[in-house]
Write a structure and sequence with these properties.
The structure is a single chain. It contains 19 helices and 6 strands. The protein has 3 domains: about 90 residues, Fumarase/aspartase (N-terminal domain) (Fumarase C, Chain B, domain 1), CATH 1.10.275; about 250 residues, Up-down Bundle (Fumarase C, Chain A, domain 2); about 60 residues, Orthogonal Bundle (Ribonucleotide Reductase Protein R1, domain 1). By secondary structure, it is mainly α. A hairpin with a 2-residue loop joins strand 1 and strand 2. The strands form 3 sheets. It has a two-stranded antiparallel sheet with strand order 1-2. Helix 3 runs antiparallel to helix 4 and helix 11 packs antiparallel against helix 12.
Length: about 475
């Protein structure tokens, strides 16, 4: 059956070029399982409310299950003339079940049908990505615990700033991905709202039971306004915004791994299995995975921009522009999930070069702030201490020495309050350990943060959305 399901109003066939231009089947065919699941629930509801008979419902459900099997075994024929996944399934159902199939679309429209399909799809994918991020967080925490004694320079403005623990640096990404998970979990509240039963935009005259349908499909809430329900894509935009933020976090991590793997930094060595070589330069080992993740971030940000631009001028209710929501959504979901998975596999295989990190943390005047703090603790006002430490750095630069390489007499030329114990305060280890404020890089504080994260993950595993813990 290739006739249009809306052909009654038209006297001429749709031009082939228009069929090809308006068809979305190559994109939305991946929603088939959700479309069939939604149709089965709708069918059961129609039978419960006696809009169709129980026998008719059984026949329709049998046909829908046959179609699902045909699609999953690559025996289903797709055709641009049928536009979308809904029309393909309904047309095939007519071939299987006969005239009774024409009753399935009672009390619904493709407008609320596609809103349902996308919500069910995005609900599952959001839960999946939350689970993937959970696994990534476990990897990050395990790495942080492994590197509790590893010191490296912390940077601001891409300049060496102060020594920090590698574990503290890694835990910064744990915090970022925790926020991403929280945002995704919050998104689920607005994704998991059932639009089916709103029909085209005004609801339906049939005595449907939307609550029953929602229970069958696992929805926590039912849309309260039929116009809003079929024209709302906020839930997609919200997901894409969260996905874009999460990808920005991956891009920042990627940038650091790329820098750290350079000869100039030489802080890490990427595993051979996650790097590539050059077709002309035999010595090269390229950080292609982090580079691609960094590049793919733009794709996800672009998906968000596409949806915002598409929706910004649409009047209520449904408009065909909204057909263009699925390609950027699918792209963003696939990209984000792939990036989470590949980082989960790659991070444990990275070799961190502790000696090089420690050496870098011992040069570049990273202890200048600690010299100022030393003076403050001996009664010098901070601004004065800051100036004196800066003068000491300038002097050390002239002498081509680090601060801790100056003599006691040289340091005392800047302040008589400096004593022999200054040198124990200027080592990377001591500088790290002195930062005992909550959230700081001191070893005890980081160890507590790691332990808290481990408890958080252990408690969370039984409460992950979607029942996949």
């Amino acid at each position: 059956m290739s006739e249009k399901l809306w052909q009654g109003r038209f006297s001429a066939k749709t031009a082939r070029i228009v069929e090809a231009f308006t068809s979305s089947i190559q994109v939305d065919r991946r929603l088939y399982a959700y479309d069939i699941q939604g149709s089965i629930a709708h069918c059961k509801m129609l039978a419960k409310t006696m809009i169709i008979s129980d026998d008719e419902a059984l026949e329709l459900i049998r046909g829908l299950e046959i179609i699902k099997n045909e699609i999953e075994t690559d025996r289903f024929q797709f055709n641009d003339s049928l536009e979308d996944i809904h029309m393909h399934i309904e047309s095939r159902l007519v071939e299987i079940a006969g005239p009774v199939a024409q009753k399935l679309h009672t009390a619904r429209s493709r407008n609320d049908q596609i809103a349902l399909d996308v919500r069910m799809y995005l609900r599952d994918e959001t839960c999946r990505i939350i689970h993937l991020l959970y696994k990534l967080q476990k990897v990050i925490v395990a790495l942080a615990r492994k590197h509790l004694d590893t010191i490296l320079p912390g940077y601001t403005h891409m300049q060496r700033a102060q020594p920090i623990l590698l574990s503290h640096h890694l835990m910064a990404y744990f915090e970022m991905f925790s926020r991403d998970m929280e945002r995704l979990e919050n998104c689920l509240l607005r994704i998991n709202v059932m639009p089916l039963g709103c029909a085209a935009l005004a609801g339906t005259t049939y005595p449907i039971d939307r609550k029953f349908t929602a229970e069958l499909l696992g929805f926590d809430a039912i849309s309260a306004n039929s116009i809003d329900a079929v024209s709302d894509r906020d839930f997609i935009i919200e997901f894409l915004s969260t996905a874009a933020i999460c990808m920005v976090h991956f891009s920042r991590l990627s940038e650091e791994l790329i820098l750290w793997s350079t000869f100039e930094f030489n802080f890490i060595e990427l595993p051979d299995s996650f790097a590539t070589g050059s077709s002309i330069m035999p010595q090269k080992k390229n950080p292609d995975v982090p580079e691609l993740v960094r590049g793919k971030t733009g794709t996800v940000i672009g998906s968000l921009t596409t949806l915002l631009t598409m929706m910004k001028s649409l009047p209520l209710a449904y408009n065909r522009d909204m057909q263009e929501d699925k390609a950027p959504l699918f792209s963003a979901v696939d990209t984000l999930a792939a990036c989470v998975e590949i980082y989960t596999d790659m991070l444990p295989e990275i070799k961190f070069k502790k000696e090089n990190m420690q050496r870098a943390a011992s040069s570049g005047f990273l202890n200048a702030t600690d010299l100022a703090d030393y003076l403050v603790n001996r009664g010098v006002p901070f601004r004065e201490a800051h100036r004196l430490a800066g003068e000491a750095v300038s002097f050390a630069l002239e002498k081509k020495r680090e601060l801790h390489e100056l003599t006691l007499e040289q340091l005392q030329s800047f302040s008589a309050r400096i004593r022999q114990d200054i040198f124990s305060c200027l080592t990377p280890r001591q500088m790290v350990e002195q930062r005992t404020s909550y959230g700081g890089t001191g070893g005890k504080m980081v160890a507590r943060a790691i332990a808290a994260a481990e408890r958080q993950l252990d408690q969370k595993k039984d409460y992950l959305p979607g029942g996949r813990g």
